[in-house]
Amino acid sequence: MVKYVDTLVTFAEFPNEISLCINISGCPNHCPGCHSSYLAQDIGEVLNKESLFRLIEENKGISCVGLMGGDQAPNTINWLAKCIKEQYPELKVGWYSGKDKLPPEINLDYFDFYKLGPYNEERGPLTNPNTNQHFYSKGKHLHKISAYKDSFYDVTNWFWKNDTNTETAGISTES
Ligand code: SF4
Fold this sequence. Notes:
Layout: E1 3-10, E2 19-24, E3 45-46, H1 49-57, E4 64-68, H2 74-87, E5 92-96, E6 113-116, E7 134-143, E8 147-154
Parallel strand pairs: 2-4, 4-5, 5-6
Antiparallel strand pairs: 1-2, 1-3, 6-7, 7-8
Bound molecules: iron/sulfur cluster (SF4).
């Protein structure tokens, strides 16, 4: 079970998407310098299929749902992503994790984006070109003869305003 504290519709956390970001509490990571330390507490409302679908219905016009946190229960994160894809196949799904590696419970078939890495005060958030964090986006590439296959690409530079390859930029969270 995971709980959420609040939600926000943003344009920054998942570039090129209008995202309903759901801030999940119970964060086990305790990154030094965390600007959202309240998220370490076991607070908020239960995030289950019913509350998730209600939040989506209350935010018509979004193109993406961002599950922000939930490292304490990756199996639940995976299940929530599966629920979204089954009920709202038109929506993209992203996950912000504070871990360095994806846990085995995550099936990337249910995700379009994911962010890995704890917050490191000296390295900064995704918007800092020196960041230790990585943001991945699903794309398609030609695999073997003519079959297209989904793959994830490290597109962290999307967040760097001065990078020549940047398609979009701007993120405010350190999570
Ligand atoms: S920065 Fe993010 S992952 Fe790290 S403790 Fe804070 S909420 Fe958790």
